[in-house]
Amino acid sequence: MARALELAEAAGEAGDVPVGAVVTDAAGAPIGEGRNLRELTHDPTAHAEIVALREAAAARGSWNLEGCTLVVTLEPCVMCAGALLQARVSRLVFGAWDEKAGAAGSVYDVVRDRRLPYRAEVVAGVGADESSALLHRFFDVRR
Questions:
Q1: What is the structure's pLDDT at 134?
Q2: In which band, very low, low, confident or very high, does the pLDDT at 143 lie, cut at 50, 70 and 90?
């Protein structure tokens, strides 16, 4: 989570919503990382999770990230929750809850939906205070 928080801070400094993500392999070694890049790239899919998943898949040489963990500072949205399931990520660890658009237990629970063919373990609240503080500082300046 420490690296994800660093990436989130960098995203905020670059003018994007401060969210950072890291994908680790089964041994806990990082194989992909990302931060929100929507403003920089003008890409609506450039969420931190998507960037990290793409990097991890490239590093692994496979779209299948079974056994991997996605660590992210903010609860994933529906798009990112779907992407981590499509990548077969085994575990999701996140910091702050997203009460407006979260899809891992707050608004929706896509990640653990029994109707879907694949589910991931969810560990919530890791680094929640730090993640929330970054988001609050970012949005307080813009309001």
A1: 97
A2: confident
- Specify whether 130 is catalytic: no
Give the Å distances, CA to CA, from 28 to 9, 14, 23, 55.
Answer: 22, 28, 9, 16
Integer Cα distance of 14 and 91 in angstroms: 29
- Confirm if 67 and 25 have CB atoms less than 8 A apart: yes
Q: Which of 49, 55, 75, 130 is catalytic?
A: 49
* 120-129: average pLDDT: 98
How far is 135 from 132, CA to CA, in rounded Å? 5
Kindly give the residue spans of alpha helices, DSSP state H, lying in 61-126.
Answer: 78-86
